[in-house]
Structures are given as C-alpha cells and as structure tokens.
Design goal:
Blueprint (H helix, E strand, L loop, with lengths): L3 H20 L7 H25 L14 E3 L2 E2 H28 L3
Antiparallel strand pairs: 1-2
Helix pairs in contact: 1-3, 2-3
Length: about 110
C-alpha cells in the first residue's frame, strides 16, 4: 500500500505533537528555541544522510509502503519526516525526563 509508511510516520509525529502540546514540554514551552533546536537536529541528520549517500553507504530502499518521492536522488520524502520525528521525539522525551527529575528533587 503506497504511502503507508509516510502515513504511519505522520500519525506518530501527530501523537508526539499532541503530547507536547498537552504537557508543554518542547515547542509549547519555548517555540523559538524549539524551532532552532529542531532545525539543527533535522539539518544534522539530513547532512549525515547526504554524506552517506555520496559515499555509497546508503540508498533508497524499495518497498510498496513507500511513496517513491525522492527529495534528492536516494533521499526519500519519508526520510525527512523520519528525521523530523526523531529530533522532535528526542527533545520531548528529554524535556519529560528533566521535568520528572526536577519534581523528584524537591528537598
């Protein structure tokens, strides 16, 4: 089913956005700083992918769940959504852990 992987990524991303909005952990805590951090994370991972593609270590996989849309050769659209999700969920989990540790440290 074409697009199933992208749909699953978008659902997962929407769930993280919902948790972030509800608990005000990352974007809803400080949107400007979150935007910079998220952009830096996405840029790092996309740069990593581009270097790996150029070195021949990485190529676009074939599968019926993928749309087949490439942003650049061998870099599928789904990869951009994935690295955005990965950066976002990492920062949300970090903020959640920090909040939990701060609430335990109530002397």
């Amino acid at each position: 089913m074409s697009g199933a992987y992208l749909a699953a990524e978008l659902v997962a991303l929407a769930c993280v956005v919902g948790a972030d909005a509800r608990l005000r952990l990352f974007v809803w805590a400080d949107a400007r700083r979150a935007g910079v951090v998220l952009a830096a994370g996405v840029a790092l991972f996309v740069g990593w992918d581009v270097v790996a593609i150029a070195a021949g270590f990485y190529g676009r996989g074939a599968g019926t769940a993928m749309l087949g849309v490439e942003v650049v050769p061998h870099l599928p659209l789904e990869e951009l959504v994935f690295v955005t999700f990965l950066s976002y969920v990492t920062m949300v989990v970090l903020a959640l852990v920090r909040r939990a540790l701060a609430s335990r440290d109530v002397r």
